[in-house]
Amino acid sequence: MSTFTVRGSFQARDGQQTFEKEIEAPNENVATEHTYAEFGSKHGLKRTQIEVTEVEA
C-alpha cells in the first residue's frame, strides 16, 4: 500500500476549512473514499460538503 496526501476543504460553521490528510491506500480512488468516510463520521458531513482538490502519492 502507498501513502497518499489528500488535500481539499470542507464546509465548517465559520466558512470553508482547508485540510491535508495522509492516508494509506492501494490507489487514489480508495484514498479519496477513506477521506469522505472519515470526515463524514468525525464531523457529520455529507459528501457534497467536502471538496477534494488534490490527491498525490
Strand and helix layout:
Layout lengths: L1 E11 L2 E11 L2 H16 L6 E7 L1
Antiparallel strand pairs: 1-2, 1-3
- Structural class call reads alpha+beta
**General form:** globular
Count of individual beta strands: 3
Estimate the helix proportion, in percent: 25-40%
- What strand line-up does the widest sheet have? 2-1-3
Average pLDDT figure? 95
Order of helices and strands: EEHE
Q: List unreliable stretches of 5+ residues.
A: none
Description:
The protein is an alpha+beta fold. It is 28% helix and 51% strand. The chain contains 1 helix and 3 strands, in the order ββαβ. The chain has one helix at residues 28-43, and strands spanning 2-12, 15-25, 50-56. The chain has a 3-stranded antiparallel β-sheet with strand order 2-1-3, covered by helices on one side. Strand 1 (2-12) and strand 2 (15-25) form a beta hairpin. The chain is globular. The mean pLDDT is 95.
